Each structure stands twice: as structure tokens, then as C-alpha cells.
């Protein structure tokens, strides 16, 4: 990979130096509003305590088009979390009917015939270039299996497992899905648009409504990508699992940024600014950085790769018959490297044994695994799964706290009942 987190951190320090000298640009937002967001992000006091927003089944969400039956989804505001138990009978790929939805506002309905993508900015050799849907589909197509996972996936575990307050959507572990994406390389489009050697940031922007947060208009959803990542493995995708993209997942065209935080995967993309100067938006300043004690006042570098997690394909509190053999199933994934090993504990974390991996581990994807279990005694129990990836990272016992609850990576204690 050409863009490691270290180089992104170094790049971000440069971007922030330029910002303080006035040479990094606040793209589409008032500079004072941006500074206010950064200040608010470092406050430990949560805007929406996860504990005050318990998991609650609902059938509709304002702004999600597809049906959200409670056996498949838990609705959280404008978002829908996949119930992990609903993945048990699915393959490696997550069917669109059970793929989580994270909407800042609402799903727009866009006619591909009316749609176009405009590429523009100071990092191009010439003026703006438009691509129709037809023109994009006529470019060489590539396919890739990749997960999309919200940076805040697992956030509620900071509260339920570690007793800490965090702000944001109270996801459990279901803000992730894996699909086979088909589209064109972003790099091909940028080269056709005439990207120049001075380009440093690439800023895709969604066509969904402007986001208003605490009375501040943040503008439309947009987050700069360093040019090195944009030219590496990023897709402009128009198909998901062999079908045209569904409305909720970005139709007609979205970005797929393998292994990176979900916010990088801009849906309903309408324009892409290619900039010769570093860009700052709410989504790489006050949001999607780590804030709190131990982090600088402006937060960590913007988040890039996802972390390491595991989940059982079981509802919370699932019940098992004592003395019978059960097949436990689950999935593990990492944005850092392919998963190498998964271990399971059925006694609260004393004894660990290897789970059987059902997939060839691949970067940017998850692996399914199984383990047998014969519970002996009736009563409450806890199941644990712990993954290690090829970079050598193993899920820790506790996750490092940050005010917005990003990148939860600790081993999750899954409650069960033996009857
Ligand atoms: N235009 C636009 N793109 C967006 C978002 C959004 O609200 N608007 N949400 C982002 C976030 S935070 C995530 S986690 C992913 C979720 O993708 P999905 O809804 O297809 O699962 O989309 C990202 N892209
Ligand atoms: Mo997200």
C-alpha cells in the first residue's frame, strides 16, 4: 500500500501547519465554524450518551428506502444496524437487504440518466471535466470484494464494557457489511480529468442534503483523501453484488476506499475537487479524529484504516441447551492486514482454542469462522472471540478511549444463557 497511517500522520501535520499559516483551505465551511467543531470534539461530555440510546427495534427509519425488518436490522435514528445473527445464513458477501445503512441525513433518489460526475479544482491541468453515467460505465471495469465499516462500529461497547461515555450513534458490532463492488478505478477517472503533479487532496462530495449539526450547517458530506490513496486502490462503484447500487448504498455511484473508515466511502458522489492545497472539512477535523486526554487539542491525525474486530453470529442473550453440541459461527476482520488467527473462549477468557477459518484471509475483507461448543452447566455465560491479523496485532482486553468512540477494537463479551 502506498499510504500507510504513518505517512498520513506526517501528511496531516504538514496539512495542519499549512492550515495555521492560512495556506490549507477550509473547503465549503466557515473557518470559525471548523474551529468550533474541533473545540467541541475534545470535550469529554457526550452529546448523545450511548447509554441513553439503547438498542431498540423499529421498522422504519426516516430517510432509508429499503425495508428494515426488525429481525434483520436495529434502527438507530437515520441509520440501520445489521443484526449479526442475521448474517449466520449468508455467505462471505452481505446481501443488500441486510447491509447496514449510515445516513447523515436521508437517501436521495437519483436518476442515472440525469446524473453526472464533475471533476474540478486547482490540482487539474485544465478546467472541470464531466462524466455521464454512460461514460463511466464505458471505462475499463474492475471488481473488488471489500467491507464498508463505520469508524464508530462497536461504539456502545465503550459504555457497556468499559463504563465510559462517548458521543455518536450507539452501534453494537453490526455497522459493517462486505460486498463485491464493480466500478472504475478512481485513478483512471482522475487521470482522464487531467490530474496534475501538484495535486495533494481529492475531495468527493455527496448529493444528499446538507448536514446541520447543533445549529451549524456543515455543508454536504465530503472528506478529503490524500492523492496517494486516491490513486491506489479506490473505486467509483456502480454495482454491489452483481446488481446496480441500491439507493441506500449510494446509487448511482459511490466511492469504495478499501480498509479505510466508512466515511471515506462517499455515497451518491456528485463532484470531486482535486486540490493543489490541503483541504479541511468537518469530516477530517472535528469528526473522524481521536480526541480526549492523551490526544493533541486538534485531535489525532484523521482516521484512515479500520481496526481489528470479531463478532458472533448470535443475538445477545442467545440460549443453548446444556450437554448438546453447538456450532458457534462468527466473523473477524481488520483494516490493517488479513486476519491470521481467531480464538474462541467459552469460559469467560481463561481457556482459548483456535476457531476454524472458513475463508482464505484477504486484505479488506472478513473471514468466517466456526467453533464447536458443548456447554456443561446451566446458567448465564459469556462467549469471547479474539482475532490476530498478519501485522501481528491481536484484539486487546480494553480499547483506548476517545470522546467520539471511534475504532473500538477490544474483545467483546457476548452474553448467553445455558438452559
Ligand atoms: N454522501 C454520503 N456518503 C456517505 C455517508 C453519508 O451520510 N452521505 N455516510 C458515510 C458513513 S459515515 C458510512 S459508515 C458509510 C456507510 O455506507 P452504507 O450506508 O452503504 O453502509 O457511508 C459513508 N458515505
Ligand atoms: Mo460511518
Explain briefly what this protein structure is:
This protein is mostly beta strands and 419 residues long.
What's the layout of helices and strands?
Blueprint: H1 5-20, E1 25-26, H2 31-41, E2 73-76, E3 79-82, E4 116-120, E5 129-132, H3 133-137, E6 142-149, H4 156-160, E7 176-185, H5 186-192, E8 201-206, E9 211-213, E10 216-219, E11 225-226, H6 227-230, E12 235-240, E13 243-244, E14 254-256, E15 269-275, E16 279-280, E17 308-312, E18 318-320, E19 326-334, E20 339-345, E21 353-354, E22 356-357, E23 366-373, E24 379-389, E25 413-418
Parallel strand pairs: 1-16, 4-15, 18-25
Antiparallel strand pairs: 2-3, 4-5, 6-7, 7-12, 8-11, 8-15, 9-10, 12-13, 12-14, 17-19, 19-23, 20-21, 20-24, 22-23, 24-25
The chain binds the ligand Nc1nc2c(c(=O)[nH]1)N[C@H]1C(S)=C(S)[C@@H](COP(=O)(O)O)O[C@H]1N2 and molybdenum atom.
Residues 99-104, 148, 150, 206, 208, 221, 249, 262-263, 265-268 line the site of ligand MTE.
